[in-house]
Amino acid sequence: MKEHTVTTRVRYSETDQMGVVYHAYYLYYFELGRTELLRAAGFRYRDLEARGIYLVVTESALRHRAPARYDDELKILTRVTSVGKASLRFEYSVLGPEGRLLTDGHTELAMVGQDRTPVRIPAEVAAALR
Amino acid sequence: MKEHTVTTRVRYSETDQMGVVYHAYYLYYFELGRTELLRAAGFRYRDLEARGIYLVVTESALRHRAPARYDDELKILTRVTSVGKASLRFEYSVLGPEGRLLTDGHTELAMVGQDRTPVRIPAEVAAALR
Amino acid sequence: MKEHTVTTRVRYSETDQMGVVYHAYYLYYFELGRTELLRAAGFRYRDLEARGIYLVVTESALRHRAPARYDDELKILTRVTSVGKASLRFEYSVLGPEGRLLTDGHTELAMVGQDRTPVRIPAEVAAALR
Amino acid sequence: MKEHTVTTRVRYSETDQMGVVYHAYYLYYFELGRTELLRAAGFRYRDLEARGIYLVVTESALRHRAPARYDDELKILTRVTSVGKASLRFEYSVLGPEGRLLTDGHTELAMVGQDRTPVRIPAEVAAALR
Lengths: 130, 130, 130, 130
What we know:
homotetramer; alpha+beta; 3 helices; elongated
């Protein structure tokens, strides 16, 4: 299964008054991981949309183990763990300074057309992600 | 010229590690004020978009005078200060607890079609906003 | 167990280019539900923080069943489903126009002090939420 | 005066249902430009905060000339245009694919202490930014 790692730096706007990253932003980091994994596999998500194919998040789960802080450089590890007919599952680990696991989780995505009905994942995409 | 006031409460996610509202969120408050002024004037912005007419922000300015804090109830005063052929200008004041002025500013908006070229403001919209 | 319902309206900034609410915003709606449930139970979360007590999200899960759209009025149903010594569990259902279930899920929260170590939930808070 | 350029890629969450970047996100891009200019000048903003010195945005202005789209690589040019006793002015240009100017603007920042009263900019910071 495909794996990919990308780094990002915590923005000031991502902190809250507890002085740590607000929990919802991990879903943005997950998306960044997923987008860059697809790019590394040879597919730009924007090109899929240009063909009328959309990936819709149908389920997410997050476990927060330790906080990220402003300006921290985060490593986002992303793995494809399931390629279905019209769905994909990604798992993520967000690591902070010194490789400490901060948050992990997964998302399920459905491939749909512009009318939001399921669409079979193109064979070349499925092959590249397996 | 039309005026309208709406209240909103600061969300936790809108604070940053300084313990106050992150400055970009005032643009969200301005939009809330603008949307509700339009609704009070008889127009839902969603209906304009359904007719293929879009309002695009072309310019904004903000002056931050005092900080808003988590859970504060804010009053957003919005005024239409100019109605052009294909443009609108709104001015905003965001007041905090005890009516203190926190941030004020303005936005210029252009009315455009789906291709982003200028579109004349419908007569009934212009009349309702003057 | 305590239940509470609050309504909110989808902001333009919460939509993405698919024309629906970006999935991460449901965590903001969940927070709104949780905050207003606490307020209805007699506790302002800001007052807890003023006493040096913080609620930290340790786990979240979301299932997206149907999309919310710009300007939709959403109903957020929130229930406390577990009150532990130093933890709380909330479950949420976000309903759209005509009461359709759009997204549901849960969050686990830990009560911690300023040093992020576990703190026992004050008896009056636990009693009010049970 | 110091100048710096940094690139960033438009996130999906930054788009709205018009299919372009929601206007408030340019303030996030401005902040990214400012943070990285400071870093290039030898100062991490996080270290200033650790010394009890904060930069607070007191004024911003944005002119939107053309839209940015999902996955576009943006170039953010940032210049320090004024270094006062307790204030700084930054000007920004956000360029899209093929170097097209999308949005420009400025921010004024005040240097303050933890109590939000003005603080003189440390001499070595002022010198590095002039």
